[in-house]
């Protein structure tokens, strides 16, 4: 399972300009070329499924194929760039998909690309263990350049080109560190415009049905842990029941015989009395 998974996601404000792109991926992870939109909040599920993990909700997105189930990636690298719709990436080697609902996307704190790749280059044993890895980076410098000089300025265009080259080099470095089995993720977001909404309810509010559109009295959907817990309880109950039945049957039909300690002690006590 010596594989690295790095996905490249390109996000922008709005719905039509957003992209989820794949820069580098191993042969065991298959991304189909097409124009299938994917919700922004399902990108972590794509990373989890590509690494062989299960998700709570099924992902009905045709962009990710099954691939090799016995050779899964060991790490996910996710990079977010704020302040731009998309970067000018090299054509031909990148697969892009439309992205929806980017306001729900959340990525972790700011890191430095060069420091990550150089640190792993010095400590290559960190990339050779048997546990999957996740790297999450956030780059907000391009957004500050756009605010200071303007997005139509020469400084912003040069910074965008430099960042695109640096990210491509970072993807290649991470890909090579994990033995050529890597996928790199990049998310570009212009702004997070999620409005704060406070949901309230009263104690007099009537309980609503979970599925009011269905006229049938259907049971609620079980989560992924239900089959595991059910099988554990079910088979433990069967094992205990069989143990009680077998023990009771053996005790009921037990014949100590004349040579047993039970018979000798009982017979001797009777004679003494």
TrEMBL record:
Per UniProt, subcellular location reads as: Cell projection, Dendritic spine membrane; Cytoplasmic vesicle, Autophagosome membrane; Cytoplasmic vesicle, Clathrin-coated vesicle membrane; Cytoplasmic vesicle, Secretory vesicle, Synaptic vesicle membrane
Q: Does the keyword Calcium apply?
A: no
Membrane disposition: Single-pass type I membrane protein
Q: Which residues form the Renin receptor-like C-terminal transmembrane spanning segment domain?
A: 198-273
- UniProt keyword terms in alphabetical order: Cell membrane, Cleavage on pair of basic residues, Endoplasmic reticulum, Membrane, Receptor, Signal, Transmembrane, Transmembrane helix
Q: Which residues form a coiled coil?
A: none
The Renin receptor N-terminal domain sits at: 101-190
Swiss-Prot/TrEMBL GO biological process terms: positive regulation of Wnt signaling pathway
The regions listed as transmembrane in this protein's record are: 232-252
**Annotated InterPro entries:** Alkaline_phosphatase_core_sf (IPR017850), Renin_r_C (IPR056780), Renin_rcpt (IPR012493), RENR_N (IPR057318)
Name one matching Pfam family. Renin_r
The UniProt GO MF terms for this protein read:
signaling receptor activity
* Signal sequence, start to end: 1-17
Q: Which domain of life is it from?
A: Eukaryota
Work out whether the entry's keyword set contains Cell membrane.
yes
Q: Which GO terms describe its cellular component?
A: autophagosome membrane; clathrin-coated vesicle membrane; dendritic spine membrane; endoplasmic reticulum membrane; external side of plasma membrane; lysosomal membrane; synaptic vesicle membrane
Role played: Multifunctional protein which functions as a renin, prorenin cellular receptor and is involved in the assembly of the lysosomal proton-transporting V-type ATPase (V-ATPase) and the acidification of the endo-lysosomal system. May mediate renin-dependent cellular responses by activating ERK1 and ERK2. By increasing the catalytic efficiency of renin in AGT/angiotensinogen conversion to angiotensin I, may also play a role in the renin-angiotensin system (RAS).
Subunit and interaction comment: Interacts with renin. Accessory component of the multisubunit proton-transporting vacuolar (V)-ATPase protein pump. Interacts (via N-terminus) with ATP6AP1 (via N-terminus). Interacts with ATP6V0D1; ATP6V0D1 is a V-ATPase complex subunit and the interaction promotes V-ATPase complex assembly. Interacts with TMEM9; TMEM9 is a V-ATPase assembly regulator and the interaction induces the interaction with ATP6V0D1. Interacts with VMA21 (via N-terminus); VMA21 is a V-ATPase accessory component.
Protein name in the entry: Renin receptor
This protein's species is Ailuropoda melanoleuca
């Amino acid at each position: 399972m010596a594989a690295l998974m790095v996905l490249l996601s390109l996000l922008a404000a709005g719905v039509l300009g957003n992209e989820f792109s794949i820069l580098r991926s191993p042969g065991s992870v298959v991304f189909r070329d097409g124009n299938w939109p994917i919700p922004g909040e399902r990108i972590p599920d794509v990373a989890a499924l590509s690494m062989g993990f299960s998700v709570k909700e099924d992902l009905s997105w045709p962009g990710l194929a099954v691939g090799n189930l016995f050779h899964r990636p060991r790490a996910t690298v996710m990079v977010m760039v704020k302040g731009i719709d998309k970067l000018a990436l090299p054509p031909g080697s990148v697969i892009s998909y439309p992205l929806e609902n980017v306001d729900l996307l959340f990525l972790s704190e700011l890191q430095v690309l060069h420091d990550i790749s150089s640190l792993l280059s010095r400590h290559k044993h960190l990339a050779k263990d048997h546990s999957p890895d996740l790297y999450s980076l956030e780059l907000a410098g391009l957004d500050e350049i756009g605010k200071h000089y303007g997005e139509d300025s020469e400084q912003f265009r040069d910074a965008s080109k430099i960042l695109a080259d640096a990210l491509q080099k970072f993807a290649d470095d991470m890909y090579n560190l994990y033995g050529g089995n890597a996928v790199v993720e990049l998310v570009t977001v212009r702004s997070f415009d999620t409005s704060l909404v406070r949901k309230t309810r009263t104690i007099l509010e009537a309980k609503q049905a979970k599925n009011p559109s269905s006229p049938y009295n259907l049971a609620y959907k079980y989560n992924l842990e239900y089959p595991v817990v059910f099988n554990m309880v079910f088979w433990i109950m069967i094992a205990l029941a069989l143990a009680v039945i077998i023990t009771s049957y053996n005790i009921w039909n037990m014949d100590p015989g004349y040579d047993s300690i039970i018979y000798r002690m009982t017979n001797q006590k009777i004679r003494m009395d």
